[in-house]
């Protein structure tokens, strides 16, 4: 597993592209510049790893566009030390970005193949989420709640009440809602039973799978 000065240069170029597309959070941009995205991909994609593109990662899932990762992360308004629930570990790239920003990450993955892969791989790049679980993202991780921030990296047809209930007052949930395409919903919990919602932009995610057993 090599991360060379050439890869760093490609990451710096990617950061410049993300800035040009409107990403402003310096913490997000720094994390993108530090996380070796090429190591999360099959070696056949290495030469394109820092393009703003999605790539397959197995189990009919994809690693999101870097812009999507940066955009969702920016909406979290993340501060170092905050407790973050990530729904959809996938390759672990988003997990690594959150960890690089100093978050305490609790992450859930529904696909066993991807869960096992990320569990083995992340320590190799010195990325240590607080908790990695195989489970149903619609349920979240109530035993570890409440969370300062929650990020969902797959499309949902509705906002799960279970996730809203696991958010601290003042906390933020970033979640793509819709069937074929999604609108990014940013939800802030303002009181025990009160929430504020903003809706931003069109995105396309793989669907979040529900455990119906």
Largest sheet report? 7 strands, mixed
What CATH calls the topology of the domain at 56-203 is: Rossmann fold
H-E string: HHEEHEHEHEEHEEE
How many angstroms separate the termini? 39 Å
User: What is the assigned CATH homologous superfamily of the domain at 56-203?
Assistant: Vaccinia Virus protein VP39
- Give the beta-strand count: 9
Proportion of residues in helical segments: 25-40%
Unreliable stretches: none
Strand residues, percent: 25-35%
Mean pLDDT: 94
Query: If you compute it from the alpha carbons, what radius of gyration comes out, rounded to the nearest whole angstrom?
Result: 16 Å
- For the record, the CATH architecture of the domain at 56-203 stands as 3-Layer(aba) Sandwich
How many helices in DSSP terms?
6
Structural class: alpha/beta
CATH class of the domain at 56-203: Alpha Beta
Strands of the widest sheet, in order across it, are: 5-4-3-6-7-8-9
How would you describe the shape? globular
